[in-house]
Amino acid sequence: MRTLAEETILLPIKVKKVYKILSNIKNYSKFLAHNTSDWSFDGDVCSFLYDGSTPTKLKMYERKSNEKILIGTFGNNSVDFDMEFLMFDLENKGTNFKMIIKADMNPIMASMASSFMEELKIDFIAGMKKVLNLPLDEEKLKKE
Protein backbone atom coordinates (compact mmCIF):
# COMPACT_ATOMS: atom_id res chain seq x y z
CA MET A 1 0.00 0.00 0.00
CA ARG A 2 1.27 3.45 -0.92
CA THR A 3 0.60 6.49 1.22
CA LEU A 4 -1.12 9.07 -0.99
CA ALA A 5 -2.00 11.69 1.64
CA GLU A 6 -1.13 12.13 5.29
CA GLU A 7 -1.54 14.77 7.95
CA THR A 8 -1.09 15.07 11.70
CA ILE A 9 -2.86 17.83 13.61
CA LEU A 10 -3.47 18.79 17.22
CA LEU A 11 -7.16 18.89 18.14
CA PRO A 12 -7.75 20.81 21.39
CA ILE A 13 -10.41 18.37 22.59
CA LYS A 14 -10.44 15.06 24.45
CA VAL A 15 -9.63 11.88 22.55
CA LYS A 16 -12.96 10.31 23.61
CA LYS A 17 -14.89 13.01 21.75
CA VAL A 18 -12.75 12.64 18.61
CA TYR A 19 -13.15 8.86 18.68
CA LYS A 20 -16.90 9.06 19.30
CA ILE A 21 -17.52 11.28 16.28
CA LEU A 22 -15.19 9.30 13.98
CA SER A 23 -16.53 5.89 15.01
CA ASN A 24 -20.04 6.77 13.76
CA ILE A 25 -19.96 6.35 9.97
CA LYS A 26 -23.09 8.50 9.60
CA ASN A 27 -20.96 11.54 10.54
CA TYR A 28 -18.89 11.08 7.38
CA SER A 29 -21.64 12.69 5.32
CA LYS A 30 -21.02 15.86 7.37
CA PHE A 31 -17.24 15.59 7.04
CA LEU A 32 -17.41 15.17 3.26
CA ALA A 33 -20.44 17.36 2.52
CA HIS A 34 -18.42 19.63 0.19
CA ASN A 35 -18.25 17.32 -2.88
CA THR A 36 -20.72 14.53 -2.08
CA SER A 37 -24.43 13.73 -2.34
CA ASP A 38 -26.95 10.87 -2.14
CA TRP A 39 -25.63 9.30 1.06
CA SER A 40 -27.05 6.00 2.32
CA PHE A 41 -26.07 3.91 5.34
CA ASP A 42 -26.29 0.23 6.24
CA GLY A 43 -24.56 -0.62 9.51
CA ASP A 44 -20.81 -0.04 9.06
CA VAL A 45 -21.17 0.67 5.32
CA CYS A 46 -22.02 3.95 3.62
CA SER A 47 -22.39 4.86 -0.02
CA PHE A 48 -22.46 8.23 -1.77
CA LEU A 49 -21.77 10.04 -5.02
CA TYR A 50 -18.53 11.99 -5.23
CA ASP A 51 -18.63 15.09 -7.46
CA GLY A 52 -22.13 14.09 -8.55
CA SER A 53 -21.10 11.10 -10.62
CA THR A 54 -18.59 8.75 -8.97
CA PRO A 55 -20.34 6.13 -6.79
CA THR A 56 -18.29 5.25 -3.71
CA LYS A 57 -18.83 2.76 -0.89
CA LEU A 58 -16.90 2.87 2.37
CA LYS A 59 -16.84 0.33 5.20
CA MET A 60 -15.57 0.67 8.75
CA TYR A 61 -13.19 -2.27 9.07
CA GLU A 62 -11.51 -1.66 12.41
CA ARG A 63 -12.12 0.28 15.62
CA LYS A 64 -9.77 0.39 18.58
CA SER A 65 -11.34 2.50 21.31
CA ASN A 66 -9.85 6.01 21.50
CA GLU A 67 -6.84 4.96 19.38
CA LYS A 68 -7.57 3.87 15.81
CA ILE A 69 -10.24 3.64 13.12
CA LEU A 70 -9.76 2.04 9.70
CA ILE A 71 -12.19 2.84 6.87
CA GLY A 72 -11.80 1.46 3.37
CA THR A 73 -13.59 1.17 0.09
CA PHE A 74 -16.06 -1.68 -0.18
CA GLY A 75 -17.42 -3.38 -3.28
CA ASN A 76 -16.86 -1.88 -6.73
CA ASN A 77 -15.29 1.60 -6.70
CA SER A 78 -13.39 3.60 -9.29
CA VAL A 79 -10.47 3.88 -6.83
CA ASP A 80 -9.85 1.54 -3.90
CA PHE A 81 -8.27 3.15 -0.85
CA ASP A 82 -8.06 3.03 2.95
CA MET A 83 -8.31 5.90 5.43
CA GLU A 84 -6.63 5.28 8.76
CA PHE A 85 -7.27 7.59 11.70
CA LEU A 86 -4.89 7.45 14.64
CA MET A 87 -5.60 9.29 17.89
CA PHE A 88 -3.09 9.91 20.65
CA ASP A 89 -4.31 11.21 24.01
CA LEU A 90 -2.25 14.22 25.11
CA GLU A 91 -4.20 14.61 28.37
CA ASN A 92 -4.99 18.31 28.95
CA LYS A 93 -3.44 19.37 25.62
CA GLY A 94 -6.05 17.49 23.59
CA THR A 95 -5.65 14.84 20.90
CA ASN A 96 -2.89 14.32 18.38
CA PHE A 97 -4.85 13.19 15.29
CA LYS A 98 -3.26 11.54 12.27
CA MET A 99 -5.05 10.78 8.99
CA ILE A 100 -3.41 8.49 6.45
CA ILE A 101 -4.88 7.64 3.04
CA LYS A 102 -3.33 4.62 1.33
CA ALA A 103 -4.00 2.71 -1.86
CA ASP A 104 -2.58 -0.37 -3.50
CA MET A 105 -1.68 0.90 -6.97
CA ASN A 106 1.25 1.24 -9.34
CA PRO A 107 3.38 4.43 -9.30
CA ILE A 108 1.68 5.98 -12.35
CA MET A 109 -1.82 5.49 -10.93
CA ALA A 110 -0.60 6.69 -7.52
CA SER A 111 0.70 9.94 -9.00
CA MET A 112 -2.65 10.49 -10.76
CA ALA A 113 -4.67 9.71 -7.61
CA SER A 114 -2.52 11.63 -5.11
CA SER A 115 -4.04 15.07 -5.83
CA PHE A 116 -7.56 13.64 -5.47
CA MET A 117 -6.59 11.99 -2.17
CA GLU A 118 -4.95 15.21 -0.94
CA GLU A 119 -8.20 17.05 -1.69
CA LEU A 120 -10.18 14.33 0.08
CA LYS A 121 -7.93 14.69 3.14
CA ILE A 122 -8.30 18.49 3.23
CA ASP A 123 -12.09 18.30 2.82
CA PHE A 124 -12.41 15.58 5.45
CA ILE A 125 -10.34 17.40 8.08
CA ALA A 126 -12.12 20.72 7.42
CA GLY A 127 -15.51 19.00 7.71
CA MET A 128 -14.47 17.20 10.89
CA LYS A 129 -13.27 20.47 12.44
CA LYS A 130 -16.54 22.14 11.48
CA VAL A 131 -18.58 19.37 13.15
CA LEU A 132 -16.34 19.61 16.24
CA ASN A 133 -16.75 23.42 16.28
CA LEU A 134 -13.01 23.96 15.89
CA PRO A 135 -11.38 26.77 13.89
CA LEU A 136 -10.47 25.91 10.32
CA ASP A 137 -6.95 26.21 8.95
CA GLU A 138 -7.57 29.15 6.61
CA GLU A 139 -4.24 28.79 4.81
CA LYS A 140 -5.09 25.26 3.56
CA LEU A 141 -8.61 26.25 2.59
CA LYS A 142 -7.27 29.04 0.34
CA LYS A 143 -5.48 26.39 -1.76
CA GLU A 144 -8.84 24.97 -2.92
Written account of the structure:
The chain has 144 residues and is α+β, with helices and mostly antiparallel strands. It has one domain: Alpha-D-Glucose-1,6-Bisphosphate, Chain A, domain 4, CATH 3.30.530.20. It is built from four helices and seven strands, in the order E-H-H-E-E-E-E-E-E-H-H. It has helices spanning 15-22, 28-31, 107-131, 138-142, and strands at residues 2-11, 36-42, 45-50, 54-64, 68-73, 82-89, 95-103. It has a seven-stranded antiparallel sheet with strand order 1-7-6-5-4-3-2. Strand 6 and strand 7 (95-103) form a beta hairpin. It is globular. The model is unreliable at 139-144 (pLDDT under 50).
Features of this protein?
alpha+beta; globular; 144 residues; 40% strand; 4 helices; 7-stranded antiparallel sheet; Alpha-D-Glucose-1,6-Bisphosphate, Chain A, domain 4
